Amino acid sequence: MPFDVPTLRKEFPTLQRDLDGHRLIYLDSAASSQTPVAVLDAMDRYYRWSRSNVHRGVYQLAEEATDLYEGARTKLATFVDADPRGIVFTKNATEACNLIAYSWVRRNLGPGDALLTTVMEHHANLVPFTYAAKDLGFEVRHITLTDDGQLDLDAARDLLADGRVRFVAVSHVSNVLGTINDVATIADMARAANPGAIIHADGTQAVPHLPVSFRDLGIDSYAITGHKMLGPTGIGALIARPELLDSMEPFLSGGDMIRDVTLDGATWNDIPHKFEAGTPMIAEAAGLGAAVDMLTELGMDQIRAHERELTGQLIDALAGINDVTVHGPRDLDVRGGAVSFEVAGVHPHDVGAMLSSTGVCVRVGHHCCKPLMKCLGSNATARASVHVYNDADDLPPLVEGIEAARSFFAR
Amino acid sequence: MPFDVPTLRKEFPTLQRDLDGHRLIYLDSAASSQTPVAVLDAMDRYYRWSRSNVHRGVYQLAEEATDLYEGARTKLATFVDADPRGIVFTKNATEACNLIAYSWVRRNLGPGDALLTTVMEHHANLVPFTYAAKDLGFEVRHITLTDDGQLDLDAARDLLADGRVRFVAVSHVSNVLGTINDVATIADMARAANPGAIIHADGTQAVPHLPVSFRDLGIDSYAITGHKMLGPTGIGALIARPELLDSMEPFLSGGDMIRDVTLDGATWNDIPHKFEAGTPMIAEAAGLGAAVDMLTELGMDQIRAHERELTGQLIDALAGINDVTVHGPRDLDVRGGAVSFEVAGVHPHDVGAMLSSTGVCVRVGHHCCKPLMKCLGSNATARASVHVYNDADDLPPLVEGIEAARSFFAR
Amino acid sequence: MSMEDLYQEIILDHYRKPKNRAPALDNEDVHVHHSNPLCGDEMDLRVRVVDGNLDAVVFDGEGCSISQASASAMTQAVIGRELKDGLELAEDFRLMMHGDEPSRADDLLDGVAFQGVSKFPVRVKCALLGWMALRDAIETYQSGASAHSVTHDD
Amino acid sequence: MSMEDLYQEIILDHYRKPKNRAPALDNEDVHVHHSNPLCGDEMDLRVRVVDGNLDAVVFDGEGCSISQASASAMTQAVIGRELKDGLELAEDFRLMMHGDEPSRADDLLDGVAFQGVSKFPVRVKCALLGWMALRDAIETYQSGASAHSVTHDD
Lengths: 411, 411, 154, 154
Ligand SMILES: Cc1ncc(COP(=O)(O)O)c(C=O)c1O
Ligand SMILES: Cc1ncc(COP(=O)(O)O)c(C=O)c1O
What we know:
Bound molecules: pyridoxal-5'-phosphate
Number of domains of chain A: 2
Number of helices of chain C: 6
CATH class of the largest domain in chain A: Alpha Beta
CATH superfamily of the largest domain in chain A: Type I PLP-dependent aspartate aminotransferase-like (Major domain)
Radius of gyration of chain C: 14 Å
Order of helices and strands of chain C: HHEEEHHHHE
Number of strands of chain C: 4
CATH architecture of the largest domain in chain A: 3-Layer(aba) Sandwich
Oligomer: heterotetramer
Number of helices of chain A: 14
CATH architecture of chain C: Alpha-Beta Complex
Structural class of chain A: alpha/beta
Number of strands of chain A: 17
């Protein structure tokens, strides 16, 4: 049984807002999700009751704060089916991708090596690696797309064939096309070509919407971000195999990540602490823990089923408008709820502004995926994306707004 | 006129807590300060009213969120007397120190060069540089202490004399000794020896307690952290001369920090955005803005005057107990309100635990300053530190707790 | 955020029937190309100078209604002006976009209709695109060159 | 957090009058040095083995009351035991520190007084220091070596 969206919506304060007489219709969860009261309460409890720093405090507040923080790690580990020692908290998914880029890629790849990524990556899962390539002289290869916006696995096989690919960075779910990539198969292919290859996936758009088992994906590391999964801003995580983390040199250094420090050097703490330098995001971790609780309670299978159905309705509604092109796969089995579209003759900025005037929030632009935009032959698209609090009632205002933009801006 | 502490205390929810019948006496602000209701409200307003991502959104929520975020930057710039284009938000002070270590030190220093720091640095302002030295082979030199816990500027002059010091990392205020270092003079000395030297200071313990003008310090960069200045966890900043930032390559890369991205490379956005990759700490910035407002309203001169007097009383109270040694300068003009002490024959853990049993929160351990501990000939100390919400009423319970620990643990 | 603040009728007229929009210009003295990679706008501006005056100004490009309409209104406001005067008018428009009252409202002609755009920070750069291209074209001409390409920041 | 949970009278007795505390041991077979840089605790443990039994165990070091008292109680509980039995008892103590009921409460002697420490996560490693040193000493002996040095994590 799907959950009751109108009731659920009451848990999200910003959605109660009225914009010039229009109900706020939030279709931009792929950029950032709304935050439920339970998450705000969890952060508030920390600030109002246990406000102090974590680790090594001998007084009660400090022990409570440590329990909140480490408890969130355990919750997240259970949620994504990973080892808690493999959960490194970061400020966002971008930092998580940079962590693996600095601590593994930059310390292992050089001339003669290759890194494989895709043309659909978010800049977060692309630029840290091309930047490293520029400094270190390894080659970057890109998996291209099939006509329906999926990764071309035949092309991937060719790119892997010479065995020089030592690192793979691939998104689990595209924030523009919605495509759900078969990360496990790509990992198998990469290891078949080079058994030592490290596979990193960007799970930012997956974890909020699909049941995810890090163990079952069979990869080495995985980046996620809190603010897209009903959690607060300012927290994300790198999820990794503990053995990989153990073998890596630290990235950020400073307090809390050391075992011993002398004037000239330092020895590192155990994982995951070795990768968490400085005072961590304590309130944010407590908030993320509460977000994970809520997602678990709603049930990731139920969430996926609900969003799958709604995404189908969204695509049908958009595709039914004259002059509207929808990007990404039509097969709902391989796509999540981020739906990019274009209105012929109307610039996405104008579509977005028109929708905004009736309280409909969509994102317009390149969505931090400039190489993908180029593949689509486009400078920018509009994108509507759904989450647990959206339902079919949100679609008519979207369609009406687009129709209005068409007649308003038609030349 | 000093402000009214008992009234002010009501603004801090955790301080209202009662621990087994004892009033909570929080003397650990050097680890993390309490957070006032105004800061929690500012974050709540974002989450409950304008929850969305920043930058480039064409709808109203996104513009509000952007205003909150960029408004916080302006507030912080005014507060520390710096150019807003020189404010880079980070997750904490540790990340800020790593930023300058990766984007400047690691790209500029090598064999034959030297970096000057001090024996009193927090690991955050030391390990990123010794770690870089290990990778890149430059030399690290350390300013030693005078008998009263100040930096030995004669020693500093000698260390600078050969002109090979190209980077200086020094704390503005010590988190263990309380010493206020004369950063401006050290900067002058370093530039006299090598005009191109870059001077970086750790302002983490200064900005919450003293009036600070980044411009007047005459340095190049400065690290601070939100959670010690009445702000939330999960936010800090590197404050830097815009020209220095402009000349530096980015550190973290990904979304929002780029101008253009192709499959093989990227061009960078303008400062400060070039250094802020990914979704930023939006709620946290809003909270930090409110914290800055509160500090400004109380008046940094008043805060300093209040804490100066209270620190004097604290030192006198501690020094009056038998077998207690107080570390750091006695001259209140050159010291802030972090007071480390030791009780002969009683391990700091036992002092801390005993104090905790009557609601008094102090920190015990090495305070992330292992090299300094070694200089003090000690493995660990206890530390009481004050902030705006402390007053003389907090001292008798501290003294009684220490006395109790002495008689309880005396062998 | 009301549509009327942003999309005044004058703006829509310029968007629907742009003035001085053309892919080429006879006897052109300067051609500048401006782009904004972050929103994908592209603008070509061509200028012919006669006796120190902006004799002809044409634009071409791709972008949202605001950027296209603003460029159109710009050409009308500046054609026939001395180069220096064109620069001053561009500065007046720029300040207006940052919230100031325009000091030369009459000279901006339809350009004043864009005052409301200043309330929409994300769109300010759209309205400025044509004007910044003009400024660049004049400065390029003054420096003795004939072509220039600029990538704008967000 | 009550002082009584943590500092039971038995613990304080061991702290004030430690048993088997000595800087040296005649005919020692193994000497291990354990330190915890994060709280500065240092522990030297010396063991003499006779006929496969822990004939003598002495400790010396610096640290808080819990670490010193726990090491003292440990020596009393293990002297005279077979090496394997000593290892098992160390494991029982370790599990107790992580919240389990001790299965050999009687054999732990005064060691059971430390059960309350498990509620104070920061202090658990203090209580464990001596026991971990013992485990290391036995394993070092079994491996044929006579000295070992270990740095513990937080
Ligand atoms: C002097 C000093 N520098 C740097 C830091 C690091 O701050 P954060 O943990 O917020 O990164 C601290 C506090 O822990 C400090 O006291
Ligand atoms: C697919 C994908 N990866 C990575 C990111 C980066 O996440 P963050 O901005 O939280 O670092 C995003 C969102 O912006 C995304 O959609």
